[in-house]
Amino acid sequence: MNTTDSYKTIATPSEVILFKEKNSKFFGYAFPITCENEIKTLIEPLRKKHFNAVHFCYAFQTGSTLVHYRVNDDGEPSNSAGIPIYGQIHSFGLTNILVVIVRYFGGTKLGVGGLVPAYKTAAQLTLESATIIEKTIDVHYIISFEYKNINKVMRVIKEKNAAIIYQKMELGCEIEIATRKKNAEILFEAFNSMFEINIKEKE
User: Fold this and answer.
1) What is the pLDDT of residues 117-127, one digit of tens each?
2) 160, exposed or middle or buried, with CB in 10 Å at 0-12, 13-18, 19+?
3) Cα Rg for the chain, rounded, in angstroms?
């Protein structure tokens, strides 16, 4: 998807939007996600809220360098709902996101020619209403050392603008730090070249 060390996603679940087409109603929702396992728990409450709706179509994408995505037409004609929704995720350049469009049938069949633009527009309006943010792709390291070397370690962390995620300060100290992917190699070398200090990438 991209070779940089950042990606775009949404900050929080979007406000619901409503799009109407020939008496059919399309309610749009967008959620930030990190993995596919979250999808069921996000769609279940929508099924309860919209118990008279006929279709709960969605598309999602996760990952930044290794991208994983899926589309679901939920009973609509093949490729008439999930693909247009996913197309909008792609056109906004987003990842780690789920977009769900809930459809109430209005009595008039739209056909594939009507469904594709309807789902596309509903997804577009949903994403336009969401707050889009940029996040960095971070690499996490574990540094272990004796307490007497604390000042040396802290100086490098500060100089390299690394973030401290977790620290255990005893005789044997351990600190988990995070840095942007593009700075990771320089940070690793800075610690790796230091005497009595061990650094390894967090798995």
Assistant:
1) 999 999 999 99
2) middle
3) 23
Grade residue 2 by pLDDT with cuts at 50, 70 and 90.
Answer: very low
Q: Across all residues in the chain, what is the average pLDDT? A: 94
CA distance 197 to 178: 17
The fraction of the chain above a pLDDT of 90, given in percent, is 88
Q: Cα-flanking dihedrals φ and ψ of residue 157, to 5°? A: -60, -45
For residues 92 and 117, give the distance between their C-alpha atoms in angstroms, rounded to a whole number.
Answer: 16
From the candidate CATH numbers 3.30.870.10, 3.40.50.2000, 3.30.230.30, 2.40.280.10, the one assigned to the domain spanning 6-135: 3.30.230.30
Position 95, amino acid: T
Q: Could you tell me which CATH number the domain at 137-201 has?
A: 3.30.70.240
pLDDT at 3 over 70: no
Nearest to 115 by CA among 73, 75, 80: 80
Residues in contact with 77: Cβ distance below 8 Å, sequence separation at least 6, in sequence order = 112, 115
Model pTM?
Answer: 0.79
